[in-house]
Amino acid sequence: MNVDLNISSKLNNDEKELFSILLKVVEKYAPRVTLRIAGGWVRDHILGTPSDDIDVMIDYMAGQDFAKLVTQYLNIKDPNVIQANPEASKHITTAKCYIPLSSGKKQEVDFAQARQEIYKEDSRIPDIQPATPQQDAYKRDLTINSLFYNLRTGQIEDFTGKGIKDIITNTIQTPEDPLKTFSDDPLRIWRVVRFCAKYNGQIDPETYKALTNPKLRDEIKNKVSKERIGQEFIKILKNPNADKALQILKDTGLWEDIISEAIKGTPYEGQLAPLNMEQNNPWHTLTVWGHTLQVVINILSQYKNAEPERRIVMTLAALMHDLGKTYKKIWSDSKSHPGKTSYIGHEFESAKLVELIFKYLKIEPYIKEIALLSRLHMRPHSLLQQKAGDKGLRKFIRETGEISLNWLDVFNLAVADAQAKSTVQDPEITQRYQQLKSNLQNALQSFSTPQQDKPYTKPILNGNEITQILNIKPGPIIKEVIDYLKDLRDENPNITKEEATEKIKEKFSKTAKSFIITKIYT
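^ thats the sequence. predicted structure below, dont judge the formating
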């Protein structure tokens, strides 16, 4: 990996001005203090990646005290002091300033004192003590995050002796013994996986061995808040190499630990087979996990240029879509292929598992969409098998829109699924789904006013209009009429209100009268 260690020559004008201000504060008020930019900003600048995340490490003074000197020097608003909050995994007190620069930018800067974290065996909440820069570096999560940029000398400081080398060799490892580092704070296990995905790095063998340590896996369950794990999980999926990270989570047992914990006390407890289970059916040569990972890879390829949040959603859908197959109670003998296994309804079980697992990880905002995508991923397969005509295609597009899904996302998940049945893609399958996509796009265009890949999801006549046409009061019959109107529009997307009016009069006039009489006499 190409790196440039001369950070000083790469500073932009805002950074030069900011660092000059900070050094003037030192000169005027605190000449003994040395300021160092810590962690990610240094790593990113070495790699040539712009970074706006500026954390300043201070020796001989608390962060909030130095931040107060900065605001005093600039005559600006006092810093926002963020107190340590161990319950929320905020272990140190920091002070945040917004420093005005001549460019018009207000640069956010966090100040904290060099510290070391002393952990007790039964908690990941440490006792924070002042430390030397060397001690601070060794207590950080990874060597690539343990580098400092000394503002006084303009030099990079690598107190562990490993940080620069590991950036060059793309190695992910801890500064100290990984068992101790992870035991101190088991959440760092997830950070290893995240940075491995971010940089497509190689985990140091000793560090990887520690990831699989059963005792540490238990400590994750007992010491780390589920919310923090969920946050790290989503950050992992933001990276382009999410498939690599998911494979590590699977190989280390961390993903199956999450599943096992999430289903405790539910009907699924003790009823899910391992992810490596063979599928034993004529359509799949891969295990459930092998197939799932390939679907993830396919989705990442399809959505490589998508917004990060859309890529996260689709990766989660790929990860969860077939998990229901591991539920033993839905297994049955295949009627069409004796000796083989069917998993009828697995998509519905997957949707239920989405809710349990995502609630456990405290990532509830993703539940609805991922559960729906998992539940509907078989629909495009059915459209092909049934050789659906335009009406069926329009119905699929309409129904996905009614539940706030984009039909194309459901279709893309199904394609990724169909192309992951073995290690070799079948060109015939690819061609069939390309034709289905073309047919769906043509069906979409047949709607009179398609907008943003979505047709109207509202019926051509609303409830008020229906009550007037049929001369009835609102009641259960309205839903029946609306469903009928949707069906009419699936058949003829350009049906007019006048035509729809005549149709419902013809079909529902007698029913409406009967409904009115029934209401009168009951």
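The CA atoms of residues 332 and 373 lie 24 Å apart.
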